[in-house]
Design brief:
491 residues; alpha+beta; Arc Repressor Mutant, subunit A; three-stranded antiparallel beta sheet
Length: 491
């Protein structure tokens, strides 16, 4: 490292360190593009074809897929709060008022921004994770996560907390599996100030690549490598097949890291992914900022995060809000029914009717959005007159069952495809072994195959006609070659 790099590194320190768990944070939960949706599904198998990693994230049909703002809430605010409360992590965490969240997210206080934050909180709370992941705890024990759930529940200001108190701010009620991971998983340090200065996709790159860069510096290697396809899967982001679009996409993402000095250089090397498709290895030379982080994180005693002076930014106390409607009344209001009408409907009609019509309206909004112009008015009328379900309607339970059946059928097709591929590969190995033998060794192998055959097979061979013998000889020969190659016998 030259003198300029040393000075630049010294200017970058000290760091504002945040420690983040290393298990769930490796996997994507959020869509980082501003628009659209990004399917989040990761499946990895071992050499024997067994599923070793499964990670899928669904989202609430009303609130949508967690997007960039929800990602910043998780990584800027909630991760910081989790770090502050220490281990073991409590089940209930206060994350602050909505005004405080505006400040923490660098957003001006306004009705729109507060509404956006509420929506992002609900997106995070509604992110449904289906996962099967193996990991090591801080003490080196092996553990499995195999869950179908969300990470936490959001309790808004004014709602009732589990202990009966009225919430004076926004709280998170962490689910048990999430707390177990937080308490047992190793953590990795990140520069919180740097993380906050990055746009979402560049921030996600920093979270993923910091593993590789840290290991590179620890083992005194000159460069770190990461596959483009792997990054696209774990970011997630669109994967391009051409070098030009890929390089243009990644150039925007790499730019802030090159400017900051986290990277000193980026190169690309053509390769293939595990499915044999064209891919690129992205090769990174760590810069002075990365080196400064490594030295700060590995300094004797470890990094000491700076305390956040929350008291300086606490807003003035606001009047205690009136209790908000809950249960079915709130469900109706959230869909455009006025407060008064919602209260009347809840009072006058059976709960089953309300739930059924709410589910039908949600289905119509999702599948036929132009059919219902005024959702609140339509829903109120549907409840009063008990509208019949429209043609094609399927309840959530029916759709969930259909999706489960489709997934099971897809898994069966995939298993059959892998079995066929394995059988073909074994057949090719047996054929290649035979074809590589000279004539003399072929004759010796066929003689050995007959000699090693069980008595019943040998008797069948001796009794067979000449054409049948040829077929039986091929079968005995292939069985011997499979034994020599260590391949399983064919039934």
């Amino acid at each position: 490292m030259n003198q300029d790099d040393r000075e630049r590194r010294d200017e970058l320190a000290p760091l504002d360190v945040i420690r983040v768990e290393t298990i769930l944070s490796r996997f994507p939960i959020h869509r980082l593009a501003r628009k659209g949706t990004a399917p989040i599904e990761i499946r990895e198998t071992g050499t024997d074809g067994e599923l070793t990693v499964r990670w899928e994230v669904g989202h609430h049909s009303k609130y949508g897929q967690p997007g960039p703002l929800a990602y910043q809430l998780d990584t800027w605010v909630i991760n910081r709060k989790i770090e502050e409360v220490g281990r073991p992590v409590p089940g209930l965490i206060r994350i602050g008022s909505l005004n405080d969240l505006c400040r923490r997210l660098d957003l001006p206080r306004s009705g729109k921004n507060i509404g956006d934050i509420k929506g992002a909180l609900r997106q995070n709370a509604g992110a449904f994770i289906t996962a099967k992941v193996r990991y090591k705890t801080r003490n080196g024990a092996n553990r499995w996560i195999e869950i179908d759930t969300t990470r936490y529940t959001v309790v808004m200001t004014g709602e009732t907390l589990p202990d009966g108190r009225r919430a004076d701010a926004v709280y998170l009620l962490l689910h048990d599996f999430y707390r177990r991971v937080l308490d047992s998983a190793p953590t990795r340090p990140l520069d919180y100030g740097y993380l906050r200065a990055l746009p979402p996709i560049a921030q996600r790159w920093y979270e993923i690549v910091s593993y590789r860069v840290f290991a590179t510096l620890k083992h005194h290697q000159p460069r770190a490598r990461l596959g483009y396809a792997e990054f696209c899967m774990y970011a997630p982001q669109t994967r391009y097949t051409g070098f030009g679009p890929m390089r243009k996409q990644m150039a925007k993402l790499h730019a802030p890291h090159l400017r900051s000095g986290y990277l000193a250089g980026v190169e690309f090397e053509a390769t293939t992914d595990r499915d044999g498709r064209l891919d690129w290895a992205m090769i990174y030379t760590p810069g002075p900022k990365a080196q400064a982080e490594f030295q700060a994180f590995t300094r004797k005693g470890g990094p000491v995060p700076r305390d956040i002076e929350l008291a300086l930014f606490e807003p003035k106390p606001e009047p205690e809000p009136e209790p908000e409607p809950t249960g079915l009344e709130k469900d109706l209001i959230d869909r455009g029914v006025s407060h008064g009408v919602a209260a009347d409907l809840v009072r006058d009609f059976p709960a089953d009717r309300l739930r059924r019509q709410i589910e039908v309206v949600d289905w119509l909004r999702e599948t036929k959005p132009k059919r219902v112009k005024d959702v609140g008015a339509y829903l109120a009328e549907a409840i009063r007159k008990d509208f019949a379900a429209p043609a094609g309607f399927r309840s959530r339970a029916e759709r969930a069952a259909a999706e489960a059946t489709a997934r099971a059928e897809q898994d069966q097709r995939e298993q059959a495809r892998r079995a066929t591929a394995r059988a073909q590969a074994e057949h090719d190995r047996v054929r290649a072994y035979w074809e590589a033998l000279p004539p003399g060794r072929r004759a010796a192998l066929e003689a050995a195959a007959l000699a090693e055959a069980d008595p019943e097979a040998r008797a069948a061979y001796e009794a067979a006609s000449s054409p049948a013998r040829r077929l039986l000889r091929v079968g005995l020969r292939q069985a011997l070659i499979r034994r020599r190659l260590g391949l399983p016998a064919v039934d």
